[in-house]
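U., I forgot to send this yesterday:
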Amino acid sequence: MKTKVIKTNPNFHSNNIHKSGYDIDALSHSYPDLKQFVFENKYQTKTIDFANPKAVKALNTALLFAHYNIKFWEFPDNNLCPPVPGRVDYLHHLADLLDQSHAHGSIDILDIGTGASCIYPMLGKAVYHWSFVGTDIDKKALQYAQNIISKNELDNAIELRHQMNSANILKGVLNESDTFSAAICNPPFYKSETEAMGATMRKLKGLNMGDTVVRNFSGTHNELWYKGGEKAFVHNYLYESSLYKNQCHWFTTLVSKKDLVKGMQVSLKKLGATEVKVINMGQGNKISRIVAWTFLDI
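Result:
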C-alpha cells in the first residue's frame, strides 16, 4: 500500500520540501488527530477529503508539527486555514530575492494581515530564522496568533500590531524607527462574500464534490474580501508603500489575477519605484505570482 499519495504542485520552489507529496503515515504519527480523516481511495492509497475543512486543517497542522518544529497551532475553525506548502513557497521565493539583493545579517519581515494562524511568521522563523512584525485589523485574530506565538516560545522573534483603521494598510502600524528587509502580503481576493462563495462553488464542482458550499480552507470576511476586491487593496498598498519608501527594502504581495500586474507596474512607475519584479510561483492547483518593488537605489 502506498503512503505518499497526496500530491502537491510540481511548480513549487526547488527548496519546498512538499513538492513531491506527503507521507500520510509519517504525518499521522506526528499529529495523531489526522488519523480520523485518513481513508483509502479507489486506488487503495491513503488520502483525506479535501472538501472537509477539519480534515484540511488537521493535515496542515500535521505538516507544521512534522517539518517545522511547531508544537501548538490552534485557532477557530471559521478563520482561514492556510495551506502550508503554498505559504512556505512564498517565503522561499522571498529568500531568493533577498539573497540577490545581498541582504545579510538580521532579516526583519513585515507580515501584512498575519491572521489568526500567524502562518508566515511561524514558517519564516522555522525555516530562515527571520524576525517578524505581523499586523491585522482583527483584534480577535491577533489574540489567537499571540497564543500560538507564546505557546511556541517565539515572543522574542514575532511581534504583533493591531491595525485599527480598516482603510489603512501601513499607516498606523509602522513607526518612524521601523526598518524591514521586506514586507509580505496575501491580500483579500474578493469584493464580497457573494463573490467568494461563487468561487468556492466553481471549485467544488470542478472537483466533483457537489454543491454544498463549504470553504475547505475556511476564512472570515476580513481574510477573504475587501471593498473593491484585490485590485483596490493592492493599489492602496502600493500608494502607502511610497510613504515609507526608505523603511523597507522590498515591498511584496501575492497577486491572484494576472491582469492586475500591468496596472500595478504603471502605478509603481508613477510612484517612483526604482525596480519592479514579477515572480511566478505555484499556489495549489494554479499559478500565482509575487510582485515585488523597491524605492531604493539598488
